[in-house]
Amino acid sequence: xxxxxxxxxxxxxxxxxxxxxxxxxxxxxxxxxxxxxxxxxxxxxxxxxxxxxxxxxxxxxxxxxxxxxxxxxxxxxxxxxxxxxxxxxxxxxxxxxxxxxxxxxxxxxxxxxxxxxxxxxxxxxxxxxxxxxxxxxxxxxxxxxxxxxxxxxxxxxxxxxxxxxxxxxxxxxxxxxxxxxxxxxxxxxxxxxxxxxxxxxxxxxxxxxxxxxxxxxxxxxxxxxxxxxxxxxxxxxxxxxxxxxxxxxxxxxxxxxxxxxxxxxxxxxxxxxxxxxxxxxxxxxxxxxxxxxxxxxxxxxxxxxxxxxxxxxxxxxxxxxxxxxxxxxxxxxxxxxxxxxxxxxxxxxxxxxxxxxxxxxxxxxxxxxxxxxxxxxxxxxxxxxx
Length: 386
Prior knowledge:
Mean pLDDT: 95
Helix content: under 10%
Number of domains: 2
Number of helices: 1
């Protein structure tokens, strides 16, 4: 069974597979089939059960049996600014499903506050106290309608009116909403990588299939061996260890000891959206000299925003993330941070790059142009949210 965004539904010992495979005349639809949950084999024909509301890009179905109704939730309108959640219901799991006359039940497509955008693709949940919620995707624009953080998970309260789900007060998602929570939301806290461990923290990520021999945890430090795969390449895995930027406003710190050996050796920090959209903050050997660089890469545009001869010994890097800018600093252990330059967040926005839903990552890398014995010793890597 084809389609995308599948979900499973279990009832009375039966398992159903629900997706958006087109069945009749290639028309958009939500389709359903019964399956053998042990083998995954279909045990019924694939049947079209709902055609949505005509918003286009029908996807992300979820089935629920609540009271006397089967509810079908779906996303329509595409994953960008017209994204929405729609719902239909039926007395029978196979339909026909009646669309709610007040669809969409969630969308920020006409929200001129520009605080939340691209709301859709939701999943209904009932908490331990009997309250209902929708967990859904959305973005937080910061440059007009642009977002570099990417899709995030939002929570909105749900009430029931005439046996239809109603989200919030105005069918829009908000940064803050009134709901029956039994705990207060906890603010993001600071985080620091533990390089004394023999395992990487789950939040630390690699690009594609990493060469594990290029990442060595030893003596409380992380040693990065430069790779000849650069950050701008679309295949292979550069020596790159990153985490999702924890919030729109935050600070990212790294302490590094890197003695170059060959021209082209470089290591440092990156703010990375994709292989075509990223910033570098690094120490690099060029023409037998070491330089401290900030470089910007955006599609076919490349700019060196800052360049100076680098000092020997340990370097401390600091990137301050703000809604519209990244500020780059460096300092020795006993010094105050020295401001170097800034770079706009807009050039790392998902809307400019296209389909980079996960948003920017920040982290550490080491690359080279030729085989080198150089290693970058990362003494610390941490984030601090405001």
